[in-house]
Write a structure and sequence with these properties.
Strand order of the largest sheet: 1-4-3-2-5-6
Strand content: 15-25%
Number of helices: 6
Structural class: alpha/beta
Largest sheet: 6 strands, mixed
Length: 180
């Protein structure tokens, strides 16, 4: 009897995980090609002296909502330079734009975002305008890192820092686009 219950539990676990993965994949596929609106004029630029994201053909957009771990996000920002340097190997510079959502920023987060040694665009979205303008984007964290083309259309969903397969897939997608 116990073995049967255990077997049913394991079977239920695998079926539910499979269904969850299928739902995630469907959600991700549904946003490919969608245009993301980045209302930079309605957000606060945290590092004014830095370049604007419009100079590259492609860019990663990282969206930090209030549910995200602030310290975790700040600790990974330095890793982006290594990821972005990979794209120079295929002669396709890729930039990074970060949108930080919330009606309040702690002082340590503000200091981290305004760091003079960080050269990427960082915006503070205190009015939640990004979320309002992009309702198709899920609140799930796996949908908070996007690779966009020059029209801000989604090419890839996923974080290349946390997932090496996403990193390789992003490189491959841009190589294929450049070969056309």
């Amino acid at each position: 009897m116990f073995r049967t219950l255990h077997l049913l539990y394991v079977l239920f676990f695998f079926v539910s995980c499979s269904n969850q993965n299928q739902t995630i994949n469907e959600e991700i596929r549904s946003v490919y090609g969608e245009k993301v609106e980045i209302p930079v004029t309605e957000m606060i630029r945290m590092n004014e002296n830095k370049s604007n994201f419009n100079h590259c053909k492609y860019h990663f957009l990282v969206y930090q909502d209030e549910e995200s771990c602030s310290d975790c996000a700040l600790s990974h920002y330095s890793e982006w330079e290594e990821v972005l340097s990979d794209f120079l190997q295929i002669k396709e510079p890729v930039d990074l734009t970060i949108i930080w959502e919330g009606n309040h920023l702690d002082e340590d987060i503000r200091e981290g975002l305004c760091s003079t040694d960080y050269s990427r665009c960082i915006y503070w979205d205190s009015t939640y305008i990004f979320k309002k303008r992009n309702p198709k984007l899920s609140c799930h964290s796996y949908m908070h890192t996007l690779l966009l083309d020059s029209l801000n259309q989604i090419i890839l969903v996923g974080n290349p820092i946390l997932n090496p397969r996403i990193r390789q897939l992003a490189l491959k997608r841009l190589e294929n686009r450049n070969d056309k």
